[in-house]
Specification:
five-stranded antiparallel β-sheet; OB fold (Dihydrolipoamide Acetyltransferase, E2P); 2 domains; six-stranded mixed β-sheet; globular; Rossmann fold; about 375 residues
Length: about 375
């Protein structure tokens, strides 16, 4: 019984029988000999909010534009709901796109902007009015019908752009850095509003972002891209807790990386001799790693404990001098310089006021962590 219950709770991407809603197969795009997207294959499932995450120029927007039909692949195929859309022009695809600039018509009212696509399709006036009102209410913009984009805030323009995309009831909504123009507090609030709207309508969203916190907050899964390739696909927790490379570990959040060599390998642990700290690292790995392998051990700063007392045992601790303390309100990030010259970061919750902290600048401190907190990465 326990097994069947577990299977029933599988997400679609964990179920080998589930059929993808959007299927990208071996897509490559080149511009004048430069490879922008390099042989990418990707399956996205109905109702997902999937994020393509990466630095500028990594190929994520080019991939989004190929899904929209604004760019044609050099090679490969794109399927939406089982139908080959590779050569289908943009205006015939069941896809809507929310641009970074929102691209609202400045001379039209909110109501006219949202209705524009429906008018182009030739729908009856009564149906257009009803649909516009429905989606105005969905994005909490009822009462703004007669305003122009110039009379709206950035957050309000973003909602109108989203309503204009959703009102056509597409199979797929593409979002190109949709919150980039908003200030930090408004962006954080709008992230949750967008997720709630997406869950209400049940439409599949694919979002491009360079903001890791945005992608982590909003996404069912993330595809992290670099140089035209997808390096890792997974849920926010998986990507953060179990990165598959040094690049991914460095891109998502802050991380301490200890280069070293495997000197002992057992069924339940490995011992790593590091070039950065004097003590060996005792790690409980998720996969077998042979003795002699050169690896890195990744440890997130919030998993590193800070104390002025030497820890017990011979593994997983080191010592150094506090060289900086970055105060962020709820937490402080301690920068500790080791004898090797390396800097290790430790995140500490601010449970007391700054003046009452037992550890201050230039103090000699010890750092330690649990065996399960280290992730082994290939060099």
């Amino acid at each position: 019984m326990a097994q069947s219950k577990h299977l029933s709770n599988l997400e679609p991407w964990q179920d080998p029988k589930a059929q993808p809603y959007v299927s990208i197969k071996n897509i490559t795009k080149t511009f004048g000999g430069r490879v922008a997207v390099n042989n990418v294959s990707l399956s996205i499932f109905r109702g997902e909010l999937f994020s393509l995450l990466g630095r500028s120029g990594c190929g994520k927007t080019t991939l989004l534009r190929m899904l929209a039909g604004f760019e044609s692949p050099t090679s490969g195929k794109i399927f939406i709901d089982g139908i080959d859309m590779t050569d289908t022009p943009a205006y015939k695809r069941p896809v809507s796109m929310v641009f970074q600039s929102y691209a609202l018509f400045p001379h039209m009212t909110v109501e006219q902007n949202i209705a524009f696509g429906l008018i182009q399709e030739g729908l009856p006036k009564d149906e257009i009015r009803d649909r516009v009102n429905e989606y105005l209410e969905l994005v909490q913009m009822s009462g703004y019908e007669r305003r122009t984009p110039a009379q709206l805030s950035g957050g309000e323009r973003q909602r109108v752009a989203l309503a204009r995309s959703l009102v056509k009831q597409p199979k797929l909504v593409l979002l190109d850095e949709p919150l980039a123009a908003l200030d930090k507090k408004l962006r954080e609030r709008t992230q949750l509003e967008l997720v709630n709207i997406q869950e209400k309508v049940g439409v599949t969203f694919i979002m491009v972002s360079h903001d890791q916190e945005e992608a982590m907050t909003m996404s069912s899964r993330i595809g992290l891209m670099n140089e035209g390739r997808i390096l890792q696909i997974g849920g926010p927790t998986e990507i953060y807790e179990y990165p598959n490379s040094k690049y991914v570990a460095n891109f998502i959040g802050s991380v301490n990386l200890f280069d070293g060599i495997i000197v002992e390998e057992k069924f339940d642990h490995v011992i790593v001799k590091s070039t950065i700290i004097e003590k060996n690292l005792y790690i409980t790995p998720s996969a077998s790693v042979p003795v002699g392998a050169q690896i890195s051990v990744a440890i997130r700063p919030e998993k590193v404990m800070l104390t002025d007392t030497q820890p017990d045992g011979e593994y997983n601790w080191t010592n150094g001098t506090v060289k900086d303390i970055v105060y962020l309100g709820d937490v402080s990030i301690y920068h500790v310089r080791l004898r090797s010259g390396a800097i290790v970061f430790a995140t500490v919750t601010n449970s007391v006021r700054a003046a009452e902290r037992p550890i201050q600048w230039d103090d000699e401190v010890f750092l330690y962590w649990k065996a399960e907190n280290g992730i082994i990465l290939a060099m």
